[in-house]
Amino acid sequence: MSRLHVVSGKGGTGKTTVAAALALALAEEGKKTLLVEVEGRQGIAQLFETEALPYEERRIAVSRQGGDVYALAIDAEQALLDYLQMFYRLGGAGRALRKIGAIDFATTIAPGVRDVLLTGKACEAVRRRNKDGTAAYDAVVMDAPPTGRIARFLGVNAEVAGLAKVGPIHKQAQAVMRVLQSSWTAVHLVTLLEEMPVQETVDGVAELRAAGLPVGAVIVNMVRPALLGEAALAGAEADKPAIARALSQAGLGGASRGAKAERLVGPLLEQAREHAARLALERTERAEIAALGLPTHELELRAEGVDLAGLYTLAAELRKQWNA
User: Fold this and answer.
1) Do 198 and 228 meet the contact criterion of CB atoms below 8 Å apart?
2) d(CA 137, CA 126)
3) For strand 185-191 and strand 4-9, is the pairing parallel, antiparallel, or unpaired?
4) What pLDDT digit, counting tens, does each position of 189-225 carry?
5) Quick one: DSSP state of residue 135?
């Protein structure tokens, strides 16, 4: 059973929102989930309407099932200090390195090292145990980088392990890859029913599989309801006078509402044709997603946006589909 849920998606698909909803959905009664942010955007704090997340695990929500959701914004510099303390016991020397800018230099000049630190912190939370031997967290959800670089982000540990043949860095990278390539991990991709996000999802799945990384589910976000089918559109085209009469009976046009209703028929039918074309496109994109052979979940578009209450609603819907 997966314990590390990595959530990625093309920019604009709402991957951070989906990651937050998934963390809530997985927080069953008496369980704990950790929601991890690695891009430094503080998107999680905004969703949960709380202050900016520090580099520490903090409880930010309780699910409707009574489970706890903790969150952590991973800072690469602080993670490197933790790493240096863990393996080299630098203590105050590590803080001195930060003051002179050495830590920032290391994480900037070697982006691969930065990604190792970010993934390593999440994997450490997955492996961590309480004093009684139980898992510290029942699930860890990572709001990961976009689909276009997710395979490289997760696979960089293998590269680092190959470059550093021995020593703590080699062991750390190997330990992280053991988690990422195991059944403990699932990489979920968020998409929209649009051509570019779906194509990026298809490409992302291929890259993840080629890298030996376990792909989980595809989550189709912001799905708009189907308001009109093709049969209804065809009927409308054939009976424009009836539409005009219905609009007039609905009270449009005042004294000359019959004439005004007739003028509205053309624009309304044009909108209906556009709607039908969108539905046809969405059917094509759904077929592309289905061909991946992965579990697929859909979350409806919330026209008013996603506030905290909306986030809980999305979590409830995702939980229902996840357990189906």
Assistant:
1) no
2) 7
3) parallel
4) 999 999 999 999 999 999 999 999 999 999 999 998 8
5) B
